[in-house]
Design goal:
This protein is 23% helix and 33% strand. A six-stranded mixed β-sheet has the order 1-2-3-8-6-7, with helices on one face. Strands 4-5 form a two-stranded antiparallel ribbon.
């Protein structure tokens, strides 16, 4: 069974993809950037502010799928500048305090809408 997840608690997709797909006990959430779901605009701020918005977007989408941040088993963080790792990691750690998911963090040359960070996750339902 495959179910498309769409919610107002996360930004609308900016391309031909779903916010998330729920399948076989997992939720696969597309990469989220620092877009405010209420305005559909990129928020102003440094990587810490953007990371906070990204994780709140992920949480909203996971909730709509019947999951939550505590059920995330894998995440990938894409940073525009690896020099921002510490600031991103500090905010990330506030959301994933106990038994954090497996994670990869990579530096990329560019991200959608020229944001500083993008994160995708896989979670249990």
């Amino acid at each position: 069974m495959r179910e498309v997840i769409a919610t107002k608690d996360g930004p609308k997709a900016i391309g031909p993809y779903s916010q998330a797909i729920k399948a076989n006990g997992f939720v696969f959430v597309s990469g989220q950037v620092a877009i405010d779901p209420a305005t559909q605009q990129v928020i102003a701020g440094d990587v810490a502010v953007q990371t906070d918005r990204v994780i709140r977007n992920l949480a909203g989408i996971l909730k709509a799928a019947g999951s939550g941040l505590e059920k995330v088993v894998r995440s990938t963080v894409f940073l525009k500048n690896m020099g921002d790792f510490g600031a991103m990691n500090e905010v990330y750690g506030k959301y994933f305090t106990s038994e954090p998911p497996a994670r990869a963090t990579v530096e990329v040359s560019r991200l959608p809408k020229d944001v500083a960070v993008e994160i995708d996750v896989i979670a249990l339902v």
